[in-house]
Specification:
Layout lengths: L2 H34 L2 H27 L14 H29 L6 H23 L5 H30 L4 H28 L9 H11 L3 E10 L5 E9 L7 H12 L7 E5 L1
Parallel strand pairs: 2-3
Antiparallel strand pairs: 1-2
InterPro entries: Cation_efflux (IPR002524), Cation_efflux_TM (IPR058533), Cation_efflux_TMD_sf (IPR027469), CDF/SLC30A (IPR050681)
Protein name: Cation diffusion facilitator family transporter
Subcellular location: Membrane
Length: 283
C-alpha cells in the first residue's frame, strides 16, 4: 500500500474518534450551559458542535483525497482538503463574532450563573478536549489537520477559561469573568481562524504556495543556459503538499532536444517539487 494511502488511512481513523468524542460532549455542554446559565459553557458547546461538524468535514476530505484521478478530475480530489480547511477557518471567524455579541449583551443585562455546574462540565470539557487534541496530534499533519487541530485547541483554551471563570464566580462572585472570558477567548480563536482561512484561500486561488518563489525558479532556469528567456512561470498546488509548476521558455539554441528535461531535473534537484509535477515548454 502506498505511503500516502497509509497516512490518509491513519488520519481517517483518528478523525472518526475525534469527531465522535467532540460531538458527544458538545451536546452535554450545551445542555448544562442552559441549566447553569453560563454563556461561556453554551458558547463552548456550540463551538464544539461546530468543531464536530468540522472534524466530520475533515474526515470526508481525508476520504476523498485518496480517490484516484478521473478523466473529469485529472488532478484527483486532494483539493477537498483546502476546501475543508477554508470552511473550518470561516467557522472560526463567524462563531466567535456571535459569542462576542452575546457576551456584550450579557454585560449589559446580566443573568444568574450557577458556577458548580459550570465548573464540573468545564473540567470534563478540559479532559475531553485534551484527549481529542492528543488524538489529532498523532495524525500526519497537513492544512486539513491543522484547521481541525486549531478548532480543538480553541476548545481546550475555552475549557480552561470556563474553569477559571467558574472558580472566580464561585469563590469571589466575579460574574463578569464569564462574558469577559468569552470575548478574550473569541478574539484568540478569530486570530487563528484568519491564518488558516488565508492559507486555504491562497491554495484555492492557485496562488504561489508558501515557501516557494517564482523569482527563485526563474533564476534556476536561467542558470541552465545563458541564452534562455523565461516567458512565463506558474506555481500552484492542489493541497499544501502537491506542488506543481509550469514554465515557458524561449531558447536561441537550435538543438534543444534535451533542454526541457535538463530544466526539469535542475528544478527538481534545487527546489522541492517532484519531477512529475514540473512542466516545461521550450519555444
Amino acid at each position: 500500500m502506498p505511503e500516502d494511502t497509509l497516512k490518509y488511512k491513519k488520519n481517517k481513523t483518528l478523525f472518526i474518534w475525534a469527531a465522535s468524542l467532540t460531538l458527544f460532549f458538545a451536546f452535554i455542554e450545551i445542555l448544562y450551559g442552559f441549566i447553569s446559565g453560563s454563556l461561556m459553557m453554551m458558547g463552548d458547546g456550540v463551538h464544539m458542535g461546530s468543531d464536530a461538524i468540522s472534524l466530520i468535514l475533515s474526515l470526508i476530505a481525508t476520504i476523498m483525497a485518496t480517490k484516484a484521478a478521473t478523466k473529469n478530475k485529472t488532478f484527483g480530489f486532494k483539493r477537498f482538503e483546502p476546501i475543508a480547511a477554508f470552511i473550518n477557518g470561516l467557522t472560526l471567524l463567524i462563531i466567535p463574532i456571535f459569542i462576542i455579541t452575546e457576551a456584550i449583551s450579557r454585560m449589559v443585562n446580566p443573568i444568574e450563573i450557577f458556577p458548580n455546574q459550570m465548573l464540573v462540565v468545564g473540567t470534563i470539557g478540559l479532559v475531553i478536549n485534551g484527549i481529542v487534541g492528543y488524538i489529532l496530534s498523532k495524525a500526519n499533519s497537513n492544512l486539513n489537520v491543522k484547521s481541525a487541530m486549531l478548532h480543538v485547541l480553541a476548545d481546550l483554551f475555552t475549557s480552561v477559561s470556563v474553569v477559571i471563570a467558574a472558580l472566580g464566580i464561585k469563590y469571589f462572585g466575579l460574574t463578569w469573568l464569564d462574558p469577559i472570558g468569552s470575548i478574550i477567548t473569541s478574539i484568540i480563536i478569530i486570530v487563528g481562524g484568519l491564518k488558516i482561512t488565508k492559507e486555504a484561500f491562497n491554495i484555492l486561488m492557485e496562488g504561489t504556495p508558501n515557501g516557494y518563489s517564482v523569482t527563485t525558479i526563474e533564476q534556476v532556469v536561467k542558470d541552465v543556459e545563458n541564452n534562455l528567456t523565461v516567458k512565463d512561470i506558474k506555481v500552484w498546488c492542489t493541497n499544501e503538499s502537491e506542488v506543481f509548476t509550469m514554465i515557458q521558455v524561449i531558447s536561441a539554441m537550435e538543438n534543444d532536444s534535451n533542454l526541457q528535461q535538463t530544466i526539469r531535473e535542475k528544478i527538481s534537484d534545487t527546489i522541492n517539487i517532484p519531477l512529475k509535477n514540473i512542466y516545461v515548454n521550450v519555444n
